[in-house]
Structure formats: C-alpha cells, structure tokens
C-alpha cells in the first residue's frame, strides 16, 4: 500500500486528450471539407493541409483521442472515471477544456443537462457532460460504500479578470442579487500557499439529482457575448469545483476525514480576438480573456522549458489553478477541435498548445487526512466568525457608512488589493532575486573558502621557497668562489692555449705539407683504384668467360660420357653377340668332332677288321701300321680330353 502510494506521488505528466466534434449544421450546409482525421486506437490526430498545391499531413499523438462519433459516455468512461476515483482516494484533480469557440468545451464539461431530459431513477441524459456524470459517480460510489461524507460544490466565472459567483443565493432580493452578481469577489492568499475566493458560496449537495438545479442556476448567470463566430459563445472562463469529505475510522477507533477536490474548468474560446470579430466595447473584455489565456500559455511554456520564474501571479486564472499546473494536483486537459477546414488555423494552434502541455509534470500528493476533532474545531471557528457577522448585521452594531463612501472605499480597497497584488509580485521577484543573491553569496563563500585554502597552500609553498632561497644563496656564494677559481684556471689555460697556438701554427705548416703529400698520395691511390677497377673488370670478364667455357666443357663431358656409355653398351652387346656366336660355333665344332670321332672309331674298327683279316698277310707292315695307329690314337685321345676339359 505504501509503495503504491509513493509510486503515485512521483512526477506525472499532465494527461492530454483530444476530442474532435462532428460537423455542425452550418458546416454540413456549406459542405466544408474535413481536414481532421482521428485514429482512436493509435491515439493520433492527422491534419491534412493543402499548401501551394502540395498535400502536407501533420500527425499529433495524445494520451487519448476521441473522434466525432465518440459519445459523452465513452469519453467519461475512458478518461474521467479514473480521475474521479482518485479524487475519492483523496487527491486533488483538475480537468480543463481548451479549444476554439464552438468546438464543444461546454458540451464536453456540462453537456445537455436538463432535469426534463433525465431518465427514470435520476438517470442522466445521453448528452450529459463531465460535471453531472462526475457528481453522479461520486454519489453512487459513496452510497455504495455506506460512507459518511459531505459533498460541497462551488461554481464561479472569471470574466474580464473579475470573479463572479454563479451559485449566489437566491433568497436575496432582486436588487441585492444584482448587486451581488455584479460585485466581483476578491482573490486572497489562504496563508497556506494557495488562494481562496472570499465570499464564494459553497453549496452542500446531498444527492446527484441536485446537480441539475445547480447547473441550470449557474448557466443562467453565465455571461455570454455575441460574436460573429458563435451566437452562444461563452467568453468567460468557468470553474466548477467539487470538494468531498469522507469519514474514515482508524483501527484505533480514531475518526479521520479524507478530503479530495475535483476542479472542472471550461476555458473561454482560444481563438484570436481579430478572428472572433469582437469590436469596440469588447476590446477590453477580449484583452482580459486573452490575459488569462496568454498567461496560461506563458505558464505552460515556463513549466515545459523549466524556466526559473513561472508567472502564475500574472492572471487570476493561473493564480486559481496554480496547483493544477506543476503542483500537487493531477491534471487532465481535454482539447477540443472542429473537423472543418474553416477552423484549420485555430485547430493547428490548439493541437500545438495541447501537445506542448503534455510535457508539464505535476507531483500529485494525496491530501493529508484530518482528525475529525480538528475539523470540527476549524468549523466552530468559522461558525463563530459568521455568528459575529450576523449579530453585527442584526443588531446594527457594525459599521455603517453612506453608499458613495462605501463604493469609494471599495474602489480604494480594490486599488489597494491590486497594489498588494503588485507588491506580492515584486516581493516574489525580490525573493527570487534574494534567492539568486543567496546562491551567489553561497558560491562566493565557497570561492572564499577555496581561496583561503589556496592561500594556506601558497604560504606553505612560500616558506618552502624562502628556505630554498637561503640554500640557493649559499649555493650562489659557493658558485662565485668556484667561478673565481675557474677564472684563474681559464687565464692559465689561455696562456697554455697561446703556446698551443704557436705549436699549432708549426703543426699547421707540417700539416699543409702532409696534406700536399697526401693529395699526391691520393691521386696515386686514385690511379691505382682506376687500374684496380679495370683489372677487376677484366678478371670479372675472364671469370664470366671461364665460367661459360667450364659450363660448355661440362656439357661436352656430360654428352661425351653419355656417348661413351652408349658405345660401351654397344661394345658389351657386341661382345655378348660374339660370345654367343663363339659358343654356337664351339657347339657345332664339338658336334663335328664327336661325329668325326665316331667316324674315326668306325674307321678304326673297320681298319682293325681289315687288319685282323690281313694280319696274317701283312705281318711286317702290320706292326708298323699298328704303331702308327697307336700314336694316332693317342693324339686323338689328347684332343678329345682337351675338348672334354674345355666343355
Ligand atoms: N461532440 C459533440 N457532439 C455533438 N454535438 C457537439 C459536440 N461538441 C459540440 N457540439 C455542439 O456544438 C455546439 C457548440 O458547442 P459548445 O457550446 O460546447 O462549444 P464551446 O467550445 O463551449 O464554445 P464557447 O467557447 O463559445 O463556449 C453546441 O451546440 C454543441 O451541442
């Protein structure tokens, strides 16, 4: 519960709704083109413009958008029900209707609200606006909760920067009533940072049905002025406030009073005075209406742009609604527009105005609950004050003065009130200046303390520097002594230098000679170098030539070797074939020898046979022949053994 409460007390943006009314009869008759399109789901309003033959669309997004077909009930259920619930929870809430004359501000806030049109059991007519519906919701809720409560309403009109009570009592005589109606009510500081309208009637309402009487009474008194735009145009701002006190009991049995307030504001038409066509006698009226609207605009700008000074005090409207703009009240603005092209300029200005107002942040706070006893004490105080006033009137013990003097004093009082107001403004400015100066003073103080710290640091560093200086002076003395020493050394060195110079001259002439020799040596070396270079190039050429030749030789050797290999192979093949041929011949020869041997053996046998045959006959020669044959045989044996060996 406490976390949800702290959640609610955070900054919240003013809720801005847009309502576009349907075409009215005049617009339908003149066939006015439609330039406003509402997309309720996307919460967008698109304006189609034709500028120099080009179609230009502008789209605005709001918290809620209600198109021409939206009914009073739809707007109330979606936008106002949650606000009234918060009022019943103890918050202060404000609903503004802002827009051009004739776009439906009064229709939205009050609507058609005649008792004759109400349904059975106090049912509201379908055209009933926010005020009667809110009153009904409040009573329905409180009655369903069986709560002990009181509901008070006030209804005032702000016209030409003058406040009039729209609920002035009717029991006064006609003259007194007129007097009272004319008499503007002063706006006063309530001493708690707010303002109150002195003498404003607070009407206690006990049932929702009473609202018809109140609205009819108020509307009848509301001033309207005829303009070219709207015959019923309301040129004043109206503020209907409902204050609810609800009794609650704490667990400890203590009685607390919870208080919530709902302000319902129907602003005057937002259009420019030149466009509305008001002239002459109405100039001041328009100026004053504009003063309040202009100041409202300036307050919104100052809040949105976070300017330091918010000019609440510049108009009565902004003084009255101060808490609803950047204060602790929950605020909702219903911007109303016409769909027709004839109102395009004013529609765009309303949309811009409302869109900017979306950025105002309020910090709604739930009203502190009061102890019943405290409230009763306050009320007793009020009753005593009123009793004293009644007693003075009845007993004629009050102060009585002539009418002229009274008016004179009233005007003086008014002048003084204005002066006081002016002084309050000056006071506020002075306070602001004082705050600025205080801030500057604080900054200066801070700067001063910073400077003192810096001074301390500087003094410390000065002391350190002085010590450093003393040491440095000592060092300087030392340096001067060293310098003198060095001077002496330098003079001695100069003498030595002169001697060295003479020596150097002699050395220089030697050097020149050496240089000459050196030069000739150099020329020789150059020549040598050239020669060497030439030789090196010859050697290089030779080397290159040699390398070429060696490479060629290598190639030749390689080719020769390969040729030699080929030849060797050829010789080997040749030898192989020779050997084969030799083997073949040998085989043939062997065969022939074997054949010859066989032949010979057969011949021998034959011969032996012949010999045997002729043995007897040829004894002498046989012996001879046998020897010969034996020797032949031996020789043959030798050959055959030789062949068998070679095999
Ligand atoms: N949403 C709507 N639906 C039907 N009729 C509407 C709607 N809005 C406005 N009207 C009608 O348009 C006419 C002008 O509306 P209304 O008097 O509320 O305008 P206004 O903005 O209050 O003007 P003014 O600034 O002069 O008070 C009325 O007749 C009203 O019934």
TrEMBL record:
Gene Ontology terms, MF aspect:
ATP binding; microtubule binding; plus-end-directed microtubule motor activity
Keywords in alphabetical order, please: ATP-binding, Cytoplasm, Cytoskeleton, Microtubule, Motor protein, Nucleotide-binding
Residue span(s) of domain Kinesin motor:
13-360
Chief localization class? Answer: cytoplasm
Fetch the SUPFAM superfamilies from UniProt. Answer: P-loop containing nucleoside triphosphate hydrolases (SSF52540)
Compartments annotated for it: namely: Cytoplasm, Cytoskeleton, Spindle
Q: Which GO terms describe its cellular component?
A: mitotic spindle; spindle microtubule
Tell me one GO biological process term: mitotic spindle assembly
Report TM segments.
none
User: Residues that bind ATP, according to the entry?
Assistant: 99-106
Looking up InterPro entries in the UniProt record yields: KIF11-like, KIF11-like_kin_motor_dom, Kinesin_motor_CS, Kinesin_motor_dom, Kinesin_motor_dom_sf, P-loop_NTPase
Tell me which SMART domains the record gives: KISc
Tell me the function of this protein.
Responsible for microtubule translocation. May be important for the organization of phragmoplast-specific arrays of microtubules. Plays an essential role in stabilizing the mitotic spindle. Required during mitotic cytokinesis.
Family classification: Belongs to the TRAFAC class myosin-kinesin ATPase superfamily. Kinesin family. KIN-5/BimC subfamily.
In its UniProt entry, what is this protein called?
Kinesin-like protein
Organism in which the protein naturally occurs: Colocasia esculenta
């Amino acid at each position: 519960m406490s976390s949800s409460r702290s959640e609610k007390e955070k900054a919240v943006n003013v809720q801005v709704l847009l309502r576009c009314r349907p075409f009215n009869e005049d617009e339908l008759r003149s066939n006015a083109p439609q330039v406003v399109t509402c997309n309720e789901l996307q919460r967008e309003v698109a304006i189609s413009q034709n500028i120099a033959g080009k179609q230009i669309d502008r789209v605005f997004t709001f918290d809620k958008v209600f198109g021409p077909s939206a009914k009073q009930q739809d707007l109330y259920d979606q936008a106002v029900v949650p606000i009234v619930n918060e009022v019943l929870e103890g918050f202060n809430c404000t609903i503004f209707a802002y827009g051009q004359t004739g776009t439906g501000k009064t229709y939205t806030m009050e609507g058609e609200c005649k008792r004759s049109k109400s349904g059975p059991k106090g049912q509201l007519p379908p055209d009933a606006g926010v005020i009667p519906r809110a009153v009904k919701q409040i009573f329905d809720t409180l009655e369903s909760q069986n709560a002990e409560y009181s509901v008070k309403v006030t209804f005032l009109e702000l016209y030409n920067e003058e406040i009039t009570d729209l609920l002035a009592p009717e029991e006064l005589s006609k003259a007194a009533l007129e007097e009272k109606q004319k008499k503007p009510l002063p706006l006063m500081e309530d001493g708690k940072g707010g303002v109150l309208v002195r003498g404003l009637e607070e009407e206690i309402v006990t049932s929702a049905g009473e609202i018809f009487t109140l609205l009819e009474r108020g509307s009848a008194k509301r001033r309207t002025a005829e303009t070219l735009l709207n015959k019923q145009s309301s040129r004043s701002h109206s503020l209907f406030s409902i204050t609810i006190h609800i009794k609650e009991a704490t667990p400890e049995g203590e009685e607390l009073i919870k208080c919530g307030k709902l302000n319902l504001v129907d602003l005057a038409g937002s259009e420019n005075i030149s466009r509305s066509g008001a002239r002459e006698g109405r100039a001041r009226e328009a100026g004053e209406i504009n003063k309040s609207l202009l100041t409202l605009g300036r307050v919104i700008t100052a809040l949105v742009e976070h300017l330091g000074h918010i000019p609440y005090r510049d108009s009565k409207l902004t003084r009255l609604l101060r808490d609803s703009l950047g204060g602790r009240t929950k605020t909702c603005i219903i911007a109303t527009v016409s769909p027709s092209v004839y109102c395009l300029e004013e529609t765009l200005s309303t949309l811009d105005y409302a869109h900017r107002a979306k950025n105002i942040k309020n910090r709604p706070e739930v009203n502190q609950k009061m102890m019943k006893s405290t409230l009763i004490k306050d009320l007793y105080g009020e009753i005593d004050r009123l009793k004293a006033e009644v007693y003075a009137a009845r007993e004629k013990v009050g102060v009585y003065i002539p009418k002229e003097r009274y008016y004179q004093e009233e005007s003086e009082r008014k002048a003084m009130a204005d002066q006081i107001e002016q002084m309050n403004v000056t006071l506020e400015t002075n306070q602001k200046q004082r705050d600025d100066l205080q801030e500057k003073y604080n900054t200066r103080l801070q700067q001063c303390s910073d400077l003192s710290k810096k001074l301390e640091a500087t003094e410390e560093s000065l002391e350190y520097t002085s010590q450093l200086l003393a040491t440095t002076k000592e060092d300087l003395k030392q340096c001067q002594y060293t310098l003198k020493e060095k001077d002496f050394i330098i003079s001695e060195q100069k003498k030595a230098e002169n001697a060295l110079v003479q020596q150097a001259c002699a050395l220089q002439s030697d050097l020149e000679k050496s240089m000459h020799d050196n030069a000739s040596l150099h020329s020789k070396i150059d020549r040598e170098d050239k020669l060497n270079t030439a030789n090196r190039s010859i050697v290089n050429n030779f080397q290159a030539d040699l390398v070429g030749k060696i490479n060629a030789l290598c190639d030749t050797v390689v080719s020769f070797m390969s040729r030699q290999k080929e030849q060797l192979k050829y010789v080997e093949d040749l030898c192989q074939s020779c050997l084969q041929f030799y083997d073949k011949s040998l085989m043939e020869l062997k065969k022939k020898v074997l054949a010859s041997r066989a032949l010979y053996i057969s011949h021998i046998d034959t011969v032996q046979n012949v010999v045997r045959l002729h043995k007897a006959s040829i004894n002498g020669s046989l012996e001879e022949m046998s020897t010969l044959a034996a020797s032949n045989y031996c020789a043959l044996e030798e050959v055959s053994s030789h062949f068998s060996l070679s095999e």
